[in-house]
Design a protein that fits this description.
Helix content is 47%, strand content 18%. With 250 residues, it is of the alpha+beta class. Strands 1-2-3-4-6-5 form a 6-stranded antiparallel β-sheet, with helices on both faces. The radius of gyration is 24 Å and the shape is globular.
């Protein structure tokens, strides 16, 4: 297998620990299948070791250290600690009220339209996290039991590797104040978050992508499944169709 420019970019991201678990696993499989790429990895790691061992390291002067320490240390101001704690408590109370109001506006009675936006926010937050998956596994017999004991009901888990959508793991998200299970699948370099919600929490599906993400929803018994991804809408619809038609774990 010949390495490409994309492989070299992924190689540097892999060495720096910037790939999420799903992409890191995929890249390790490519490393095993490409001796040239594995040799490039060894060369880059050897170069980095040599640079660390042989190049002198600059150290901050005592004057610079004193200046940094002075900037980091806030000046001491005599104050009335009782008044200060009172103000702090008031600030916490205000923050709590504002946060509660925001939660009510987001998922309050009679207004369920923002469910899609909340799911997209969870998907985006996971993509930005260093660990977007709580349990990393392609085995549905590992992922489904992981939810047991953590949530009242575990989601339906389908093996879709043959259809081009391998399972990469799962995590627990929060909608409003309720923890919910989310399965994570992959299609090429795209991740798909599939969150299971009570079917009664049905809401309007956006007709157009939101912030570049598409959403598909379907109901299966007492649960509604919401799939979120930056995949093109037809591909995400294809995933949802394969999920609905797939055989769950025995």
């Amino acid at each position: 297998m010949t390495s490409t420019d994309d492989d070299r970019l992924l190689l540097n991201a892999y060495i720096d620990g910037e790939l999420d678990p799903a992409h890191a696993l995929e890249f390790e499989q490519r490393l095993a299948a490409s001796p040239g790429l594995a040799a490039e990895l060894a060369r880059v790691e050897a170069l980095r070791r040599a640079m660390r061992e042989r190049l002198p390291r600059d150290t901050a002067s005592p004057q610079l250290r004193r200046r940094v320490a002075a900037l980091a240390r806030p000046p001491f101001i005599a104050t009335n600690w009782g008044a200060r704690w009172g103000a702090m408590a008031a600030s916490i109370a205000v923050a709590f009220v504002v946060g509660s109001a925001a939660t009510y506006l987001a998922v309050g009675p009679g207004d369920r339209a923002p469910v899609a936006e909340l799911l997209i926010a969870n998907h985006m937050r996971a993509l930005m996290a260093s660990q977007p998956i709580d349990v990393v596994s392609s085995d549905r017999h590992t992922v489904k039991p992981w939810f047991n004991g953590k949530l009242p009901q575990s989601p339906r888990v389908v093996d879709l590797a043959a259809q081009g959508f391998p399972l990469v793991g799962g995590r627990i998200d929060v909608i409003g104040l309720t923890p919910v299970p989310t399965l994570v699948y992959r299609h090429r370099l795209h991740l798909i978050s599939v969150t299971a919600l009570p079917a009664a929490q049905h809401a309007a599906i956006p007709r157009h992508p939101l912030d570049g993400y598409n959403v598909v929803e379907w109901t299966d018994g007492p649960l509604a499944y919401w799939a979120v991804s930056d995949l093109a809408a037809p591909e995400l619809e294809g995933f949802a169709k394969a999920f609905r038609a797939g055989d769950p774990e025995p």
